[in-house]
Design goal:
With 193 residues, the chain is an alpha/beta fold. 41% of the residues lie in helices and 17% in strands. Helix 4 packs across helix 6.
Length: 193
């Protein structure tokens, strides 16, 4: 789970709220760093953090996240959802290409999926954005929180733990869906599998 940066950000925000953490031993790419930052600061109390690939300096206080915290964050979630929301923060051009290629040629997902991105990113990759449109709904230059009234009547799984917390605070039944679950949901019944 160490590579689940959205969940890592949320767990850090719970362990050291209001601090400026030095996060060591992880090397997220640009998109994963964006998800980490959003989950760290989903409620506005941790707008700054530092990343370090190696071990922490010996003179700093160390706070480890116990394995049980990871399990607790994922273990008590209702598996039944009728909507998957991806793209908070917005899907990047690389995200659109990755998810579009992954789901191309697959049977339609059993659960409705909403993808959120910017118009700029959608316009830069029209072929894979078209695949995502065929797999669900692609919203451009919008935030899922602008659709809160519609979301309140749904059971939602999100690719962002920060979004899950925002939705729950607004009365939506929401849970986190790790990347491996999203891959399974979007790549169902690929021919030859």
């Amino acid at each position: 789970m160490k590579d689940d940066h959205s969940l890592l950000g949320w767990l850090i925000s719970r362990q050291v709220p209001g601090e400026v953490p030095l996060i060591c031993g992880v090397a997220p790419d640009h998109d994963e760093a964006k998800r980490l930052a959003f989950s760290l600061n989903h409620h506005g109390s941790m707008p700054l953090f530092h990343l370090r690939r190696g071990a922490p300096p010996p003179d700093l206080e160390r706070v480890d996240i116990p394995a049980s915290a990871w399990d607790d964050a994922l273990g008590s979630q209702d598996p039944d959802v009728d909507l998957v929301v991806m793209g908070c923060p917005h899907l990047s051009e690389q995200d659109i290409n990755r998810w579009g290629r992954l789901s191309q040629g697959c049977r339609m997902p059993e659960v409705e999926t909403w993808f959120f991105t910017s118009r700029l990113c959608a316009d830069k990759c029209p072929a894979t954005a078209s695949v995502l449109r065929s797999r669900g709904k692609l919203f451009v230059d919008m935030c899922p929180m602008t659709m809160i009234d519609e979301l309140r009547s749904r059971s939602v799984a999100c690719d962002s733990y920060g979004l899950v917390e925002c939705l729950r605070r607004n009365g939506v039944q929401a849970r986190y869906a790790p990347n491996h679950e999203l891959r399974d949901r979007l790549a169902l019944d690929r021919p030859g599998r």
